[in-house]
Structures are given as structure tokens and as C-alpha cells.
Design a protein that fits this description.
It is built from two helices and no strands. It has about 45 residues and is mainly α.
Amino acid sequence: MIKQFFQRPIINFISRTLFYFVIILALIYLYSYSGVGESHFIYNEF
């Protein structure tokens, strides 16, 4: 029954779009969390 539900073209398109959107949001979140582009304090180890 679930397989028949996802065989419909519009449901397949919407589910794939949501899946890839969630992946892109997760990648953006992880990129912003890593601190790329932030300035680091030079004397952090002293």
C-alpha cells in the first residue's frame, strides 16, 4: 500500500523535494556551526 502511494508521480516528486530540502538545510546548518568565516582570536593559546 505504501509502495503504491509513492508510485504516484506527484507524491514521488514532493517526497524527493522535501528529502533533498532537508539535506540542504542540514548541510547549511553544519556549515554555519563549523565557524567558517569567523575571525579567530590570535592569542587564544596564551
